[in-house]
Amino acid sequence: MTIPTKGRPRTFKLRIHQRGPKGLILKRIQFTLVNRDQVFNLAFGDKDTVTGDIDDLSVSNNGDSEKVLATVVGAVYAFCDRHPVAWIYASGVPVHGQDFIKSA
Fold this sequence. Notes:
The structure is a single chain. Strand 4 and strand 5 form a beta hairpin. 12% of the residues are buried. The protein has 104 residues and is of the alpha+beta class.
């Protein structure tokens, strides 16, 4: 489930509450405007409980990675509906995520 939170002019954030065998894990999706041509960087990962930042290197292994990935894709669609001229840039798959993506 996604819950919209702060929406500053250049940054749009969503929070995900992931429930699984390891309990509740907070994740975050963030779209950040990187230039005037409506290019946004997509960041995703666990919410660092100390800093509040996105930790895109953590591995939660909570048993629902396909559901979480589908939620991220849904967030991209919702973002594009609200920002139809935006371009979204995403890169940097950590090594531990490559096997999951190859099998999808």
